[in-house]
Amino acid sequence: MCFAGVPLVCSGNDKYCYKYFDGSWRKSAQFPTPFDRTTSTYDPYGLGLVLAGGFNITAVVATKDGNTFRQLASLPDHSANACLAPLDKASNLLYVGGYRETGNVNDVFKYLAVLY
Fold first, then answer.
1. What pLDDT tens digit does each residue of the chain (116 aa) get?
2. At 6, which helix (H) or strand (E)?
3. Domain boundaries defined on the chain
């Protein structure tokens, strides 16, 4: 992902985003909530980078710059390693599959990003 031409990656394992400046990766910001085996997507219509769900996690956050995060409405249920994709200009997202401690998940959610 790039913001203003600067590469950005976010890692759920250590709760930070990193930006690439002058030949090295530097910590940018810490997530407002911990993530574990989360999913992410880039919504070009307004949300920016979106991180959602994970193992026993229903939280959803978005960032447009890798420095500030907005808390969005929680997912209806958790699943680890699901798939997330933008659907339309209204910032609807598609949240699909993953797994829970009981096995694979076949759920499909249309998620409307409501800001909190």
1. 666 778 888 876 678 888 898 899 998 888 888 788 888 898 888 888 899 888 888 999 998 888 889 999 898 888 888 889 998 888 889 888 888 888 888 878 787 766 54
2. strand 6-11
3. 32-112
